[in-house]
Every structure is written in structure tokens, then in C-alpha cells.
Amino acid sequence: MQDKKKEPWDQYGAYLHLDKILDAQRPWSNEAGKPAHDEMLFIIFHQVYELWFKQILFELDDVCARMSGKTLDDRDLLPVLKHLDRIVSIMRILVKQLDVLETMTNQDFTDFREYLKTASGFQSGQFRLIETRLGLRREDRLRVFHGQFDDNLCPASRKTIKETEQTPSLFDLVDRWLSRTPFIEKSGYKFWESYREAVYKILDERKKAANDNLDPEALKAELEAIDKNRKKFDGIFDPEEHKKGHWRMSWRALQAGLFITVYRNEPALQIPFRLLSLIMDIDELFALWRYRHALMTQRMVGFSMGTGGSAGYGYLMQTLEKHRIFTDLFGLSTYLIPQRALPPLPDEISGEMGYSYAKQR
Amino acid sequence: MQDKKKEPWDQYGAYLHLDKILDAQRPWSNEAGKPAHDEMLFIIFHQVYELWFKQILFELDDVCARMSGKTLDDRDLLPVLKHLDRIVSIMRILVKQLDVLETMTNQDFTDFREYLKTASGFQSGQFRLIETRLGLRREDRLRVFHGQFDDNLCPASRKTIKETEQTPSLFDLVDRWLSRTPFIEKSGYKFWESYREAVYKILDERKKAANDNLDPEALKAELEAIDKNRKKFDGIFDPEEHKKGHWRMSWRALQAGLFITVYRNEPALQIPFRLLSLIMDIDELFALWRYRHALMTQRMVGFSMGTGGSAGYGYLMQTLEKHRIFTDLFGLSTYLIPQRALPPLPDEISGEMGYSYAKQR
Amino acid sequence: MQDKKKEPWDQYGAYLHLDKILDAQRPWSNEAGKPAHDEMLFIIFHQVYELWFKQILFELDDVCARMSGKTLDDRDLLPVLKHLDRIVSIMRILVKQLDVLETMTNQDFTDFREYLKTASGFQSGQFRLIETRLGLRREDRLRVFHGQFDDNLCPASRKTIKETEQTPSLFDLVDRWLSRTPFIEKSGYKFWESYREAVYKILDERKKAANDNLDPEALKAELEAIDKNRKKFDGIFDPEEHKKGHWRMSWRALQAGLFITVYRNEPALQIPFRLLSLIMDIDELFALWRYRHALMTQRMVGFSMGTGGSAGYGYLMQTLEKHRIFTDLFGLSTYLIPQRALPPLPDEISGEMGYSYAKQR
Amino acid sequence: MQDKKKEPWDQYGAYLHLDKILDAQRPWSNEAGKPAHDEMLFIIFHQVYELWFKQILFELDDVCARMSGKTLDDRDLLPVLKHLDRIVSIMRILVKQLDVLETMTNQDFTDFREYLKTASGFQSGQFRLIETRLGLRREDRLRVFHGQFDDNLCPASRKTIKETEQTPSLFDLVDRWLSRTPFIEKSGYKFWESYREAVYKILDERKKAANDNLDPEALKAELEAIDKNRKKFDGIFDPEEHKKGHWRMSWRALQAGLFITVYRNEPALQIPFRLLSLIMDIDELFALWRYRHALMTQRMVGFSMGTGGSAGYGYLMQTLEKHRIFTDLFGLSTYLIPQRALPPLPDEISGEMGYSYAKQR
Which of D355, D341, D177 is nearest to D257 (CA)? Predict the structure, then answer.
């Protein structure tokens, strides 16, 4: 609320608490009596990151709260999309703003690096919390040293992360939300049976074409390829095969993800499809940010260890793959078939997915 | 310096003063009991701006200090370029990050706008200071209401701006530095005489071609065009004409700017040329930022007044041209002639502009 | 289709017709015997623009076709959004890629500028066509010289533009689509009456507060402000006042635009709201592109005329405002009121705007 | 040259050869009678890539030509920097423009993917040529299938690449140029001896501090660390150790690279330092482009094989590290020491590195 102790022209500063924000830059090289010009950039750059991390957490909390209800009310969908989209926008800035840090040369960094001692981005509690909130599990994290990843966080952060681990992550909530998609099994229609039939039809046609046209050697290779392909599809259709696979997402959620992807233009699926796309954008942008971060580290310190004893470039490169969370959504693309081979939806299902709105305009 | 009262895992937070940074977000809609989700973004977005403004001022101070000496030591040139380049990088982020604010819809903004009362970006003392430091003069600013532009700043900012107005701005320093370029008048060589001769030669050839080829009517028009062109060039060659023109930059600085532009590949001019280019980049990016800001304002509040009683879109559009500072450098492009018509530098001048380095590699 | 005359390793080149694409760069400075290195960039840069323009037209044609039907089928909505979103993505690249052209210095440009003669971006038929397709009318264009804007286009482009002028533009189609929004007047509910009532209530409260608290002089000013405000709102509520205003959009479309904006979270309005947002993004990005283009022109040629006799920086700056098309959508923000004052939708209307989908998950 | 057969209003199209450029889009899904809307984007997107590749090659050729002379004339330095900087700008667009392709969904791609048959980005002769020109050697490339990487290029591209392999690459030229840096061994001064002494002094101080302060166990660990560190530095100081290491760059070039990095503010080293920075920017941007490309591939086809039988995501991820070229320059950061420990240059060397220009301003 307007700060009544302040004059009209002081409201802006009071509103943004600029007294705190602009008083929080104290280069340790200054305090050591060897001021290094570029340390100011290093500090402000990381403070900006932490501010944006706070915003990302604020949006994630809201998204998770809206998705945690027994049902996801349709009036909540637009805010969910809006806030995911905002995270995408922020992540784009976080990736891009590494350009600013790269105006510091490696020698500039060396001039104050020794004063940082154990201070390290590894200790960013907010970043670790974002990872946990998104769905990165303790056991999936790359191990560094002997201990747990949160041994080098402050007690408050460690506590928050432990508590957060007890609540459903965005990954869990997306899985649950997908699993409840009403249309994939309804009034006798089963999406995966209908889809499997379409896949088998394609493979049968391919087999027929092979038999008609190929010489024995080529035929043998083609038949093996077709067989391999059929097995690939069984890996997602069959709940037992699914269990044996490397999926983290539940069998039912995967079916729904595929259903939404292929019938994405149906009115009732347009917004769910956009939700999945935004989740993939976020996953991709975190990956991209990790990679730029790794390259920047290599540029600054070569193959040395990172600050705070972190393992530097090598460590960061290993997290590229290992710390991705929604890989299963990307994996779905492995199972697509062309539109022309796609079975049309039964009228009954299709009708239910229309908008009442549709009928009137 | 390492904070000895803190544990190793607390160094990161202590180093960045995260206790202050992350405790400075208090939405006034919350305090009014009507929490508006998007106000958090609005706050953090502006705090990030203020952090970057602090960094820009830090770099500008360094650049101005290095350029304020009696001579600009050559060992200072790289840091000057590096810090200008950093301002360019930051400005690119400031322009780009408006994408994040645009994830807020106009209705979202309306939901907390009334709580902002007189708080307004107009009150950003740091932004006003940057403008002054770059060279925007009090008398060149767009007048709003009756008073002075700094009437709505807090006393501390007002004081700093008044003091800064007493010291040379970046514009003044660039002008002075250009005026001292040693090569434009040396050992009998005068750049502008040599350049004027080349220009006149082009115009004479054009006149001859016109006389040979054109019918009377076309000839008349062409001769008038040639005459107008000659007058245009006199406007920059002749110090008296220069005074009558709309230039802010001194006559000598303009000659040097043109000299550096056309002979930019000479070893001694490569870095001065890059300095001029970076200054133009900065001018352009501030202009671009103003325009994106204006468009965003129009999107949020239409044609209403801005917060803090500012005049909104219309006001911002008027500052586009009026608040540009280095227009004269852009204006130099009006006076270029093709390389093939450019007089070669006398050997003596050219020789002096070589590197000792050059001779050995 | 696979090019059967080609070997497997030639398919890529055949597919992309690289023989044509990579054989289309013939600098005129080369042909004049005075090769200027940077002309290659100038050519390729503009060819890339023209390729993207072709893509924008392709998407615009699809969007307009889908919106031209008697009703806009809901299965067409996602493709419409997707293709508008793609135009947004492309425009962002077009704005950004001016960075590449700015690696050319003004002197580099001067070295081949004279060979361009009358060739000028003004002659880009595709760009003019995009403007027309979006909804820029012949009579709204800035006049240059005596003739029509398309006098300097080739006959084929002129013909296409004339034909396009006979079909509804995106502006027309958006206006028509908005005018048909079913919910703004239904079963006794009239949106604008309900909204006007809410506005008047706010103004009445403000009047009461003024009467209670203000001294006579302040009261007078406040009452005048309130009266002015009421008139402002009448300008959009009253069809007669609307006609007198500066709106291009029809009265009914404006009401629908406002309705969608304030009730954007209703399931049936989420996608329409996104459509309006994308249209505004496109309008903003074209404006931004014009401004960067103007700044770049000023940097290259100062205050000279542009190539092809165009009026350069001054001309381009004038088109900034004049060539914007969807300003009315931005203008709607002038009429928003806070959420807390917004009348809730009648149950009947609200119920109809639900998804059938909603009821099941 | 102006196309005299054309009217004034046709010059633009004639200049850009738009007849070719805009007539080169023939979706194979159309020819198969199953038009897929998004194939147009796929084609134009790749054509834009190929146009930029042509520009990159044009700039690389110029840079290599200027660096291939017996000496690198100082008047060539600015153009070399300018053209490298342009490649940086273009690469930023190439990375960024993947955003546009990602407006295509995986299902959209599946709808025309089967018509592409063997056509694949793997067959881009220009891209392979860029890699070779930069310095990626045949033997360093990731092996796919049995054959050579250029087996799936057209004969003309294969021939050009073979010829290019016979000429020095950018890597070779940078190595040679660095090796000739005159100042690292001069008039009795040897950079690496002076630098090694400084390193040893730091390590000795560290050893002394350890002996004074640490308990036996910690001391043992610290002494081992110090010893390891000394060996690390010997790996670059000693030409014999250098040979045993994993360096591609010559010993002398590495010393020069380090020299330029640590004394970068010396007037004669400012431009060489910028050259090295730009080379690293390019290396980083190619890496970043590969990663975005890999992620996009995974999004479109999951874990399937890529088009043209390429190995998809897995293959692309393996090239991330393997196809980097200037890693040695990044590796130099491993050997930096703080400014305060850096030995000042002998006056004689320092004096020679000044500008004649410096002395006059």
C-alpha cells in the first residue's frame, strides 16, 4: 500500500525497496583492498538471476496449486498457461543474459576469483528448489563428492527442499492430470487399440510392398526392420512392456499425451496441447541454459575446478542429459504416424469434445 | 571478503546479500487485502531494471573517469571499449526483457494499478542520472507539466543529478577526445581541405556529365541539385556555416569523426572507430528501449495517462527523437563519398599512424 | 516428391532448389568492376527478408482463408493461432537480424550505394502486399511524391495488390469475427449495459468520496475529472458517440473485444483472447521493425534521401504511427476497470461458455 | 550493374534475382497430392540457412585470404575483425531462428516427413565446407556408418572439400599468426620464463602458508595439490610436456595466446586479443547451434533416426564435444594467475608495443 510516511516523489523507491536492492553490492575484492572492476558485474549478474528465480518459483507455486485440486477447473487453465508461458519468457532472458557476463574476460575473472572462496552458484537454494519443484528427484541427481547435493546449501534451503520433496512436483501433477484425460477410453472406444490398429495397418502395407518389390536379401533386412518397429510400438501400447521400459511417466499418462498430440486440433484438446508444449519449452530452455553455463565456465576457468570446489565444465556437461525432467514427452515423438493414416475419432467422442461456443458463432 | 561469521555453505547468500535482495518484494495489492498475482512480476521486473541501471552507471563512471584525463592513455582504451560494449550488452537485455512484462495482460495490470498511486518509473533517479551522464541536458528534455523534470525525484537523486551536471558528460568527453585527434591537421596536411577537394571533384564530374548528356530542362534540375549538394557539404567544412547549423558537436570534433570514419582501417584509427561505433550502438539501443516502452505502455493503458501522472504513450513517443544524444554522429553519414573518390593519406601521416607492432610480424 | 533423376546424395540440394537459391547473388559493384566486399551481405540479407516475407504471406493466406468462412470452425482455431504465432516468431527474427546488417559500416555502404540506382526496398511487392493483407488501406498510407504508393512496384505486384484490396483483409476478418461473438447480447443480458453500470458505480463512489473529503477547489477539479471520465466511457458505449470517434473498428467488434479482454479466463474465451493477443503482438513487431529500420537507415545515410529516391529517415519515422493497423485493440485498454469492480457474468451465460470437457475431468 | 532491360520499378527484383529466389519452393507433399501446410516453412527455413551459410563462407574466405599472406598487414586487421564479428552476428541469428521452426509441432512434421526420403541436412555441402574451413579435420569427425562423412555429399561438394583440405584452415592460420607474435621472446626477454617464475612464486607462497598453518594431514593433501598444480603448469611451459599433452595448437602459439590474454590491455595487443575473443565466440556459437539442433530433433522425432538415415539425437549429442575446433583457446584459462601476481613487462618490450598514436594525443 502507498507508503504514507513517504513523499509523493519517494513512492517509487519505497515501492521497490531500492534502499535494500541498491545497497547489496559489496565486492570482496574491494574489502581485500584489491578492487577488481568486474566483480560488480559478477555480483549484479547473480542478483538478477536470484530475482528471476524468485519469480519462477512464484509462478511454479501458483501453477502447482491450481493443478493440485481434485479437478483442474477450466477457469484455471488460462492462468496456468499464462504462468508457464511467463517462465518460458524468463528462461529466454536467463539464457540470453549470459552474453552480458561474457563481456568479462577470463583474466578479469581470475583477478577476483580467489576472494570468492567457497561462495558458489552451487549454493543457490532457489535454483535447487526450482529443480525439485519441476520434478528432479534426489536420486536422479548427479552425485558430486560423497555427500548429498544439498549438503552445501544453507539449513533453511535444505529444509524447504526436504518439505517440497514431500509434495507433488510439476512432473507428478502433469502425470496425474494426463492420466485423467476423459476421452482416451470411453463408451467402448479405446484410443490405444484404435491407434495400434492404424500402426499395424501401416506396417502390414509396408510388408506387402516389400514382398512385392524386393529381392531376397533386401526383403530380409526390411522384414527385420518392420519387426523391430512393431516391437518399438508394443513398448508403449502394452502396459507390461511399458513397465520394462525406461519411462518415468505412467502408462496412462503416456497414452493421453499421445492422444492429445495427434488429435491436438480438437477444441477440447487445444489448450491441453498448449500446456504440454509449454512444459517441453521449459525443459528445453533449462537444458540450453545449462549448456551455455557450461561453455561460459569453460571459457572463464578452462578445465579447472569451478568455484566452491564444483567440478567445473565436466560436471556441468554431465548434468545436461541427467538433469532433464520431461524427456518422456519428447520421447512420444518416436510414436507418431502421418495424419493420413490416423484413425478418425468416433463421432460420439468428437462431439463431446466440441465447444458449446462452437455451435453458435 | 569471505564472511567469517558464516558457514562455508552460507557464503553464496552472504556474498550476494540475498537476505536483502529476496526480502524486498511487498506487493501493495497484498497490503490492501486484494492480492493481484501479477504485481510480483511488476515489482521484480523493475528491481531487475534498477540493478542493471546501477551496473550501467558503474561502467559509465569508469569510462568517463578514463576519458577525463588530460590524455587518454592507450592502455585505457581497451577497458573503455570493454565497458561501453558491456553497456551495449545490458541494453540489449533491457530491450528484450520487455517480452517478460508483456506476459501480463492489460486487465492484470488494471487489477493492481490503482494501488501504485504516485509511484512511477518517472521517479527512477538512476535512469535520469544515466541520461544526464550520457549528455542529455536539462534544457533539451521534454517539458512535462510546469516544473522541472527532476521535481518528482527524491532529494538525494536531485542532488546527484545537479552535481553531475557540473561535470563533463560522455558527450562532452567524446567531443573533447575527438577534437584532439592529432592527424587531421599536421605537417601541412589539412583533412577537410583534402576531403573538400575530393567532394568538389565529384560534383564537377557530375556537372560535366550533366552538360554533356542532359536536355535543358533536366540540366537545370541537375545543376540545382548539384548546387544544393555543394552547400550541404559547405555546412560541415566551413566553421562559420557549422555554427549556423543544428550541430551540437564542435566543428573540430565533427571533422575528426569524419576522418576516423573514412580512414577507419588505418591501424591507429581502428580502435577510435570502434569507440564511435559503440557510442552509436548505445544511442540506438536507448532509442529502441524508449519505443518498446512506449508500445508496452499503450498496450497496458491505451491512451490513458501513465502512472504517477505521466502523460503515457504520447509523452514517450515525443521523447523518442528529443532525448537522443549522439544524433550528430549519425548525421556524419550524410557526408560520405565512395572509397574510390577518397584522397589517399599523405605517406607521412599514414606512416605515423602505423603500429610499431606492424613492422615486425 | 523425391527427384528420381537425382542420386540419393543429391536429394537435399534438389529438394531446396539450391541451384537457384545459391546462384542468385550478383553484386552490381562487381559488374561495375569495383567490387565492394559488403555488397554480398546486402544482397543476401534482403533475399532472406524476401524468403521470410513469402512465408508470412503463406501463413496470412491460410489464416484469412480459415477466417473467411461463414463460421470459424473450432477445429480451425488452433491452426489459426499456430500460424499467427509463427508470424510473431518470424517477425522477431526480422527485427533481430538487423544486427547483422549493422556489421556493415556507413562507409562500406557508401562504397556500393551508387550502383544500386533506383533499386530500393520500396519496391518490395511482397512487403506492400503483407501490409495490404493485414489491413493497411491505400488511403491510410503516407503519401510520397505525387503518385500512388504502388507506382514504383512492378506490374505483377501492382495487380496482386489491387486484387487483394477487393478481398477482406485480416483487419476486416477480425472485425467480423468479433462482431459475431455470441455472448455479448443474449437472453436479456447485454454486456455493455452491465459494464456501463459498473463504470458508473465506480464514478459515483469516487464522486461521493470527493464530496466527503475535498475542499471546494479540489472538489471542483475532481468533479470535472469525473465528468470527463464519464464522457470518455460514453465514447465507447454509445454507438452514436462511437461513430463520431476515431475508431476504425465497428462498435460491435469493440464491445466484443472488451468483453473478451475482461472475461478472458472463461473457457470459451481463452482462445479468442489469445487470438487478440497475437494480433497485437504482430502489430507491435511491425512497428518495432519499422523503427529499427529507420534507425539503421539514419546510421547508414544520415539525413540523405534513401535509395530509390525514398525520403529516408524522416519518411520512415512518419510511417511509425501512420501505418499501424490494429491501434483500436490497444485503445481498448483505456476502458478497463479493476477485477473487483467487474460485474460477474449471469449464470446462464457463464454456463454456456463452459467446455463439455470441463465437466468430466 | 543496373539492369538496363528492366524498368526503374523492376530494379529491386532484378537486383535480388527474386524470380529465382521466390520460385524455389516446391513442397514434395504437394507433389505427392497430400499437401502438408508446414512443409513450406521447412523448405524456406532451410533455404534461409543455406543463404547464411553462403555468407559465412564468403566472410571466412576473406578472413583466410587476409591471414594467408606472409605477414598480416595491419590495415587488414579491422576487416578481419569486422568479418569475424559478422559471422558471430549471423550465428546468433541461426541459433535464434530455431524458434521459428519450433512453431511446427512434431505431428506436423510427421505429416510430410515420409516424402523427404533421403534428403537430409547431412547433405548440406556448404555446412560441411564451413566446418572444414574452420579447421575440423576429416579424422576428427564422428564416424557414421562405414564410409567417410562426405560419401553422402554431391560430387561437386566432395571435390571442394577435398581441395579445401589442401589449404590452411582458419585454425592453421590462427596458429601460424600466433606463433609469429614478435614480443614473446625478444632482447633477452622470454615470456614463458617470466610467467613460470611468477607461477612458482605463487605456489611457493602457498606452500609456505601451508607449512605454517596446517596440521599434518591437511598439509599432506595441500602439498600434493600444489605439486599437481606445478605439474599442470609444466604441461604448458615445457615443449616436451606440451607434445605429450592433448593440445592441437603448437607450443609457440599457446605461449602467444597466453601472453595476449594476460597483457591484453597493451596497445599492440588489444586487437589481437579481440581477434582471439571472436574466434572463441564463433566456436561457442557453433556448439550452441549444435545443441539447439539436437534438442529440436529430439522434439520432432524423439529417439528415431533422423532424415537421410542419420542417427538423430544421439549422433548430434556426440558431435557437441567432438566437433569443437578451438578448445585449446578455452583451455588457456586453466593457466591464468591474478593480475597482482603478474610480472610487469620489461620497459623495452612495453615501449615497443605502444602506438605512435599514443604519444600524441
Answer: D177
How far is D25 from D50, CA to CA, in rounded Å?
Answer: 14
Q: Please provide the size of chain A in residues.
A: 361
Q: E strand or H helix at B185, and its extent?
A: strand B185-186
What distances in angstroms separate CA B296 from CA B47, B91, B299, one per listed residue? 18, 17, 5
| Chain D residues in contact with A264 (beta carbon < 8 A) | 105, 107
Candidate from A15, A85, A96 with C-beta closest to B93: A96
Three cell numbers written together for C14: 534438389
Tell which of D18, D75, D120, D296 to mutate to test the C interface (max C CBs under 10 Å).
Answer: D18
C23-57 tens-digit pLDDT: 999 999 999 999 999 999 999 999 999 999 999 99
Q: Is C196 part of the contact surface with chain B (CB cutoff 8 Å)?
A: no
3-state secondary structure chain C: CCCCCCCHHHHHHHHHCHHHHCCCCCCHHHHCCCCCCCHHHHHHHHHHHHHHHHHHHHHHHHHHHHHCCCCCCHHHHHHHHHHHHHHHHHHHHHHHCHHHHCCCCHHHHHHHHHHHCCCCHHHCHHHHHHHHHHCCCHHHCCCCCCCCHHHHCCHHHHHHHHHHHCCCCHHHHHHHHHHCCHHHEECCEEHHHHHHHHHHHHHHHHHHHHHHHCCHHHHHHHHHHHHHHHHHHHHHHCHHHHHHCCCCCCHHHHHHHHHHHHCCCCHHHHHHHHHHHHHHHHHHHHHHHHHHHHHHHHHHHCCCCCHHHCCHHHHHHHHHHHCCCCHHHHHHHHHCCCHHHCCCCCHHHHHHCCECHHHCC
**By the CB < 8 Å criterion, does B78 face chain D?**
yes
Q: How far apart are CA A203 and CA A197, in angstroms?
A: 10
Which of A97, A336, A342 to mutate: most D Cβ within 10 Å?
A336
Cell of C321: 504511427
Nearest by CB to D302, from A112, A317, A332: name it: A332
Predicted confidence at residue A312, as pLDDT, reads 83
Q: Is A48 on the interface with B (CB under 8 A)?
A: yes
Q: Which residues contact A101 (CB under 8 A, 6 or more apart)?
A: A41, A42, A45, A296
| ipTM entry | 0.94
Q: Which domains does chain C have, with CATH numbers?
A: 8-184+252-334 (1.20.58.480)
Q: Is the pLDDT of residue A304 over 80?
A: no
User: Which of B78, B182, B357 is the closest to D361 by Cβ?
Assistant: B182
A interface mutation test: which of C266, C355, C359 has the most A CBs within 10 A? C355
Alpha-carbon separation of residue B304 from A47, B124, B311, B312, D15 (angstroms)? 34, 21, 8, 6, 47
Is the Cβ pair A332, D261 closer than 8 Å?
no
At position B140, the amino acid (one-letter code) is: D
Single pTM value for the model: 0.95
CA C3 – CA D117 distance, rounded (Å): 10
Q: With cut-offs at 50, 70 and 90, classify the pLDDT of residue A359.
A: very low
Using a CB-CB distance cutoff of 8 angstroms, which residues of chain D are in contact with residue C13?
123, 125, 154
Contacts of residue B274 in chain C, CB cutoff 8 Å? none
- Measured N-to-C along each axis, helices C39-67 and C106-113 cross at an angle, to the nearest 10 degrees, of 90
How many beta-carbon pairs under 8 angstroms link A with D? 108
Burial of B8 (0-12, 13-18, 19+ CB in 10 A): middle
| The residue count for chain B | 361
Q: Which three cell numbers stand for residue A144?
A: 558430486
Nearest one of C21, A178, B155 to D55, comparing CA atoms: C21
Q: What pLDDT digit, counting tens, does each position of D200-227 carry?
A: 999 999 999 999 999 999 999 999 999 9
Cell of B174: 567524446
Pairwise CA distance, residues B136 & B171, whole Å: 9
